[in-house]
Each structure stands twice: as structure tokens, then as C-alpha cells.
Design a protein that fits this description.
alpha+beta; binds N-oxalylglycine; binds manganese (II) ion; 291 residues; globular
Length: 291
């Protein structure tokens, strides 16, 4: 493969979302990207929090090689949904063993149930439905900034408990037909505590770390108050002024900073359409994303 022309090119960065998000045209996605290009890409990620590379058109090997440049990759706990030849690639969709998502997920940041959650994720559209199956991003940084100071004071310093068991229970409540599914992953991931307001290690910006289906409770609050606070924060985050909806074209790649945004999916007609997405997940404290 000849990547020489791409090495010399400077990607064109164009803001797309209301407060965040940028499209990066002409970014080569493979393991040999020059350090200079990588630095530009990472600083764009820190600045815009979600980067869209239209028509990246990559295979799993290049996706993994590119992703590794940022740091070690997570292997997803739902191992059966990873690619046999590339276990770093987690498959989402309604094809084969892909992790089935019909768009009823809640806002979240990836792998918040781990002691050190993922820094960033890359998501590639291998097969995309003609309608629905969008990915929605919320600017948890801008959303925090726009809270009134009384709310900021109330929530700064609060700690939320995230657990895979909560997510499993939530899944059972919302997918009654999948009750038979055995999911023992919760045994390997005991509940973890994370700040409700997190501070980005590079930009220093505070953001809301709220994952309603994964958080069992906020410490020190009666459960009703905890749930009401989470609901209110999500209602604030999910306003159109802080949301970017990515409508997929086949071949698009999107990378987001889990430390600064939340995401979720929209419904699609899984009885009529096929969807297959490849995700790589950069483990927490990634060397390539921390400066
Ligand atoms: C994910 C995810 C959303 C989507 O894979 O982490 O949240 O659009 N996916 O499928
Ligand atoms: Mn996700």
C-alpha cells in the first residue's frame, strides 16, 4: 500500500456540532500515520471531543493498528462479540454474534464499569441501515459548564457507583424477550466509584459523568433523590443545543473522547435492515491521549 501522499497531507478540520464535534477530511487511518499527523489528530480530539472521518474505508487490521497508536486497547468483556482474528474489535449490530443494540440504550461513556474507564472509542460503520441506527453524542463538558452555580456546587464532589450488574438488570427490564441470556460478566466487574463530575486530564475541563443504566446510586443520597438528580442531569445534557447526531454512511469512522462526551444510539428497524459496527476502545490512562 502506498501511504506516502497521505503522510504529507494535512487533514482539513471543520466543526460540525453545536458546541463540539468536527469532521476531519483526508486523515489516513492505518498504523503508520506519522507522529505529526497523530499529534494534530489528538489535539483536534481534545478540542472538539468527537471527530468524524468520512469515508475512512478501513478494514479491522488497519482500525486496530491506528487505534493502538493512542494506547493499549481494551478487549471487550462480551468476548463472543469480538472478531475472531481481531479480538480488539467489538462488533455492534444485528448480524451474527454482534452485540445486539436496538437503540434503547441510555446515555453513557464506554466501560464506565471498569475501575479505570476507557479514554476514547473508535466506531466504524461496516454495514449501516438506510434509516435509523444513528449515534447520538452529547457534549458533557458544555452541559456541565451551562449548569447554574447552585447545581454545580451541589454535584461537585459527589460520587456515583457504576456496576455491570445494574446494566444487566436494566437490560433485563428493557429486553424482556432476552431473559434467558446468561451474563456472568458482572462477577468479574464488581461495582466501582467514579466522580459524578470528572475533570479532563489534558484540558482540565469538567464534565458530567452520568450513565443512567450503569449507575446504581449516588453515594450519600436517598435512592429517590439519586434517581431524580440523574434524570435531571440527563435531561439537561440531552438538549439539542449540546447534542450532535451522527447519521452514518458506510465507511465512516468516528472517534470520541469518553472523558468529555456521552453517547447513545437511535432505534432502527432491526427486522428489515442490517447494521454492523466495529468498535475499538482505548483503555484508560492512554499514553497517546494524555498530553
Ligand atoms: C457502543 C455504542 C452506539 C451505537 O458501541 O459503545 O454505544 O450507535 N454504540 O451503536
Ligand atoms: Mn457505547
Amino acid at each position: 500500500m502506498n501511504h506516502i501522499a497521505a503522510h504529507d497531507a494535512t487533514p482539513a478540520i471543520r466543526p460540525i456540532g453545536p458546541t463540539f464535534g468536527a469532521e476531519v477530511a483526508g486523515m489516513p487511518i492505518h498504523g503508520d500515520v506519522t507522529p505529526e499527523l497523530l499529534v494534530q489528530f489528538v489535539s483536534a480530539l481534545h478540542r472538539y471531543r468527537v471527530l468524524v472521518v468520512p469515508q475512512a474505508n478501513v478494514g479491522p487490521a488497519d482500525l486496530v493498528a491506528f487505534s493502538r497508536r493512542f494506547g493499549p486497547l481494551e478487549i471487550h468483556s462480551r468476548f463472543e462479540s469480538t472478531l475472531p482474528d481481531h479480538p480488539e474489535v467489538f462488533c455492534v449490530g444485528n448480524i451474527g454474534q454482534a452485540s445486539f443494540s436496538r437503540g434503547i440504550e441510555q446515555w453513557h461513556a464506554d466501560s464506565s464499569y471498569r475501575p479505570v474507564p476507557s479514554d476514547a472509542s473508535l466506531f466504524y460503520g461496516e454495514i449501516v441501515p438506510p434509516e435509523g441506527g444513528d449515534t447520538l453524542f452529547a457534549d458533557a463538558t458544555a452541559a456541565y459548564r451551562s449548569l447554574d452555580s447552585a447545581t454545580k456546587q451541589r454535584i461537585d464532589g459527589l460520587t456515583a457507583v457504576h456496576s455491570l450488574e445494574s446494566l444487566r438488570q436494566w437490560g433485563l427490564r428493557h429486553n424482556p424477550d432476552r431473559k434467558q441470556e446468561v451474563d456472568n460478566r458482572a462477577d468479574s466487574f464488581p461495582p466501582v466509584r467514579h466522580p459524578l463530575v470528572r475533570r479532563h486530564p489534558v484540558t482540565g475541563a469538567r464534565s458530567l459523568f452520568v450513565c443512567p443504566a450503569v449507575i446504581s446510586h449516588i453515594e450519600g443520597l436517598p435512592i429517590g433523590e439519586s434517581t431524580a438528580l440523574i434524570d435531571a442531569l440527563i435531561a439537561h445534557i440531552a438538549q439539542p443545543r449540546t447534542v450532535y447526531v451522527h447519521r452514518w454512511s458506510q465507511g465512516d469512522l468516528v472517534m470520541w473522547d469518553n472523558r468529555a462526551v456521552l453517547h447513545t444510539a437511535s432505534l432502527f428497524d432491526h427486522t428489515r435492515y442490517r447494521r454492523l459496527m466495529y468498535r475499538t476502545t482505548i483503555a484508560g490512562d492512554a499514553p497517546g491521549l494524555s498530553e
